[in-house]
Amino acid sequence: MSSFYKPHRNPKWNYGGPNWRLSRSKIDLFVECPRCFYIDNRLGTARPPGFPFNLNSAVDHLLKKEFDTHRAGKTTHPLMKQYGVDAVPFQHESMDVWRENFKGVEHHHKATGFTVSGAVDDIWVRPDGELIIVDYKSTSKDEEITALDQDWHDGYKRQMEVYQWLFRTQGFKVSNMGYFVYANASKDRKAFDGKLEFDVTLVPYEGNDSWIEGVLKKIKGCLDSSEIPEVGAECDHCAYRKAARDVQQEHRKKLL
């Protein structure tokens, strides 16, 4: 068996177990494909994870260090000034916990009994105390990134909205306007010369978290049901499972 992929997790981490909680990424999995979500959280067999992109992690880490310098000094980052954002990085005793994977900001949702959680990249604060949720992204594209205008950006938008909702549940005043700090590795340099150069842009997104309560109730109904739900409309994983099953059945028929 692969040392990277462990399909069957400890039942303590499945729905109903003492360690289970509903992360931001699990909410997004449900929206994408209820069947994959159910197999993962109720039956305990997860999708194979995407391979970790260490370069992306390195960019995130360096951006955090850079903004933390301004957080400590209570100063405005040049990127904020460039885009006219009147804010500074937010100082709070829980900041490190909020940014830590598998911890993050947590909310006990009474209507479902779920502990909902998510780990943010950054939070900025306006002079009036309103918080701005910020997420770091990195890529390499020929064109400048100025908007979230592709279908696959929908997951980014939901990510932002879940974070905004989570901080509102903690009693914070949160702006609908969030920002993505986008680091785009340039490919038009004359040579590599042992380094990548990034163009960093600030992409605004006005969130709307009104969908979250309804989805949490649907997730509760899904997990409490004994029926395996329908496949997501565009789930490549389910499409592959079906295609592989069908071709195996056809192969067996030919052998009879």
Automatic annotation (TrEMBL):
Domain PD-(D/E)XK endonuclease-like positions: 105-242
Gene3D superfamilies in alphabetical order: 3.90.320.10
Superkingdom per UniProt: Bacteria
UniProt-recorded name of the protein: PD-(D/E)XK endonuclease-like domain-containing protein
Pfam families for the chain: PDDEXK_1
